[in-house]
Amino acid sequence: MAGDGRPAEPPVLRAPRLQRVRVTAARGGGAAELDPDSRFDAELTRTPRGAALPSPAVSDHDEDRSRPGRRDFLRGVTAAGLAAALPGCDDGEVPLDDDAGTDAGPLAPPDAGPPPGPVPPRERSYATFEHGVASGDPLPNGVILWTRVTPGMPGDPDPGTVEVTVEVARDVGFGTVDLTETVTTDASRDFTVKLDRDLLDPATTYYYRFSALGDTSPIGRTRTAPDGPVDGLRLAI
């Protein structure tokens, strides 16, 4: 208590005056200069040149961001599902690396069999009947037979005159030939043959074929017209 009987006032504590550091970078690694009028204290730590800097502190906010979120979880689940759906490679399949398929060529289906080899050149006779045979204009005693000879490959020289033989029979095996005749054709006729003969029987089915230069045409079938009036007629084209 004070001498006059009044209670003494508590002492006033004054905080020491803080200093602010004013750092002046000195060339050649000189010491920092302090400002005595500053109000804040600071601690200077000099890091040697080339040394690693200390790692920054991680706050609670940064820790939350480093944890996987809901979107990251969904992306991971989706990727795992796709990986499980894709078929894997075992010992019986080609591995999916950079060299797969470069030496063996394209992959074939399991049941495709061996790859086809080169197509051999077509074997054909010098004279062929690529246009087939035809017949028409039937009469009771005859019919017109037609064919065209292909004497050679394109670019071959003109063979000149080609002999063509025609055979007509009542059976497809040509056991009994009713008519045999040989005619000629050349480039002036475009190597066509048109044979009109009237030595056949009416209302009869005949088979015919041509041959030339060792080749034989396909077998054709025709029928002569009936002799006399008929109740009906069928035509085929």
Explain what the structure shows:
This protein is mainly beta and 237 residues long. The protein has helices at residues 60-66, 70-85, and strands spanning 133-139, 142-148, 162-169, 177-185, 192-197, 205-212, 215-216, 220-223. The strands form two sheets. Strands 3, 4, 6, 7 and 8 form a five-stranded antiparallel beta sheet that branches. The radius of gyration is 55 Å and the shape is elongated.
Write the layout of secondary structure elements.
Layout: H1 60-66, H2 70-85, E1 133-139, E2 142-148, E3 162-169, E4 177-185, E5 192-197, E6 205-212, E7 215-216, E8 220-223
Antiparallel strand pairs: 1-2, 2-5, 3-4, 3-6, 6-7, 6-8
Q: Report how far apart the termini are.
A: 146 Å
Average pLDDT works out at: 69
Tally of helical segments: 2
Low-confidence runs (pLDDT<50, min 5 residues)? 38-44, 88-105, 119-126
What structural category do the secondary elements indicate? Answer: mainly beta
Notable traits:
mainly beta; Immunoglobulin-like; five-stranded antiparallel β-sheet; 237 residues; three-stranded antiparallel β-sheet; elongated
What can be said about this structure in brief?
The chain has 237 residues and is mainly β.
